[in-house]
Each structure stands twice: as C-alpha cells, then as structure tokens.
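Entry type: protein chain
Record version: 2
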Amino acid sequence: MYNKEINELIYKFSNLGLDSSSDGAMMIGRAPFKGPEAWLNIIYPRVSEEELALLEKELYTIIPESYKIFLINYSNGGNFLSSTLSLDGLRRRLTRDPKANSRQPFSIITPNVYERPENAKDSYFFIGGYQWDGSLLYIDKDTNMVHCCGLDDATSKVHWNSFEDMLLSELKRLYLLFDEEGREINEDVSTLPY
C-alpha cells in the first residue's frame, strides 16, 4: 500500500458507490448532483517502468522521485472531490467519446512542456492543481518541496515539505469544506490552500 492514511481518505466516500471504467480507473463516491456520470474521487491504473521512461522522454526531464513512487505504486494521477484538486498523469488515450467509458488524468505534459507559468525554474516539475482558479502544484526538484502557485506565475504562495505531506494535508483540509455526500458546504468559499 502507498500510504494508509491517504488511501483511507481517498476511499472515504466508497459508501456512495464504487465502480471502474473500461480502462481500469477506480471511481469512488457517486456524485449525481454534479452529473449522471460524476464521481467524487478517481484514481487511475498505475504507470509501468516502461511508460514512465517514455513519459520522461516526452517531458525532457526526470520526474521527481516522490511523484514517480506515486505514479508507479499507487495511481497515475488523480481527481479528488469532483476535480477540486487534481494530480496529473500519463494520458494513455486521447478519446473524448462519452460512450467509451474511459477515464484519463489531466496530462502531466501540458503544464511542464506547453503551458509553463512565468518564473518557472527548470527544477520546477508541475504535478497538478486546483479547479477554483487554475492554481498549480509543483515539486522543486532541488529541494523536493511541493509549492502552490498561480496559473500564470510560478512564485510560490504556499509550500509543503514533501509530496506525501501535501497530499495528506490537502485531502484533510479539503474534506472539511464538503459534507458527507461530497457536496461543497459553501460554494463561495475558496478551496485554495492560501
């Protein structure tokens, strides 16, 4: 198991339903108030060592060790609380066919290659972000610390000591903003960590 406490938080809404997509994504907690096919949390089939090597070639960089461990041992990215917080991964297919029953993470290539914010150092590796305003998360490969920044500027607004610290503390914090059915308690309250 990757991290017992993180895993328990991700599966917290399993009482609202569990299902898997045709490509192996695990969907946790039905969210019919968001849409007929909506789920609160989604984790994706892990990446293989071979896929990871190919992904690093496409990224023109090495993925930080803490995120590699997550991708290989737990999930190829993830969407939490109806994508309030998302972690990027390898998109294995580019289909948008709603009948395909396919679930894919947001592409880790996009923020690292095509849409890097201003002031992003070469050591910044972008791993996900927040739906609220598009704020991004990145790991500074020089320090292994995780930072949150705005969509267009990589200046850190808040940081955590490690990837696991960030994911655990953010899931705990965000869950306080949602009720037992996964509905936001107050949609006007920011879901950002700053």
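Comment: The mean pLDDT is 94.
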